[in-house]
Amino acid sequence: MTDPDPIAHAAALLRAGELVAFPTETVYGLGADALNPAAVAKIYALKGRPAAHPLIVHLSAGSALEAWASHVPDAARRLAARFWPGPLTLILPRAGGVPDAVTGGQDTVGLRVPGHPVAQRLLAAFGGGVAAPSANRYGRVSPTSAAHVREEFGTATPCLLDGGDCEVGLESTIVSLAGEPLLVRPGGISQADLEAVIGPLRRAAAGEGPRAPGTTVSHYAPATPLRLVERAERDAGYGPGVAVLAGRPAPAGFAGILWVDAGTDPARYAHDLYASLRRLDWVGAELILVEAVPASPAWDAVRDRLGRAAAACAADELA
Ligand code: TXA
Ligand code: MG
């Protein structure tokens, strides 16, 4: 007999060492019991991801951080009180019992209390930590809907809880408090909002801080080559064969295959970004061109992901 309550069923699968894909407010996650290394190994196998990459442990609201972190600095408590549940991941020194399979063998652990109600109900029903990366194949665009998860894994898709479209649409902001406070990855919570709570925060330089898949160039890339374009090129017009992502409507006479107008609101642009990249990737274009977004802090997370997508394509061309 299958359990009629999908949340209880998913929690039972987690307890049995199986995978569950679930919605968060950022992107969909591919989860396993964080204390079961054999279950966590299934995440790496399904994603095709190298095993040394650390995973974020997702916790239900009110969980004791001491079970996961050997030291919880005051700044971590203040950020947690202000932004959890929400799109923020804290990197802290790991506690003894956290498996290497979760931390990638590092002496830190990534913790997050997601705000999505389905994620919270799943975590409460399970009662433990759920290790989960984004529910996509390694190096590809993160899923922001249940349909995206099915596109990624097809018939290999595990139990999948459908929580609709992800509200934020980009991965969580990551702050390391394992040493000097560092902004490791920009996301839905801005640097200014973080600094208002804990004071100055340095943005990690490329290659600085812990090894992490979200901080390498092989991420967030569609299969079609993608390039960022600046003003001069866009004014010269686009030829046939291109698909364009822009913050404005298509100009008269646009001769390409598809034009996606993502608008001028950074939250809206972020919400739609991965779905837009999937659409642009499918229309058979030779090249995806993305018009540069504004240089202001409100666009930090979007600019970061677009830069990585373009860099990943450049790396592919060299390979
Ligand atoms: O919004 C998100 O963060 C989504 C949802 C599912 O929660 N998850 C996500 O996971 O983006 P993933 O695996 O794609 O990226 C996890 C990132 C790594 O790139 C790394 O930067 C950081 O989290 N991370 C996790 N554990 C860490 C650790 N022990 N030390 C350093 N960085 C860690
Ligand atoms: Mg990912």
Query: According to CATH, what is the class of the largest domain?
Result: Alpha Beta
Based on DSSP secondary structure assignment, what is the total number of beta strands?
A: 14
> CATH H level of the largest domain: which superfamily?
DHBP synthase
Structural class: alpha/beta
Average pLDDT over all residues: 92
Low-pLDDT runs of 5+ residues are none
Give the strand order of the largest sheet, numbering strands 1, 2, ... along the chain: 7-1-2-6-3-5-4-8-9-10
Order of helices and strands: HEEHEHEHEHEHEEEHEEHEEHEH
What coarse outline follows from CA principal-axis ratios? Answer: globular
Count of helix runs: 10
At CATH level 3, the topology of the largest domain is: DHBP synthase
Could you tell me the radius of gyration in angstroms?
20 Å
Estimated share of beta-strand residues: 15-25%
Which architecture of the largest domain does the CATH hierarchy give at level 2? Alpha-Beta Complex
Largest sheet features: 10 strands, mixed
Q: Helix share of residues? A: 25-40%
Associated small molecules: threonylcarbamoyladenylate, magnesium ion
When the domains are counted, the total is 2
Calculate the terminal CA-CA distance, rounded to whole Å: 50 Å
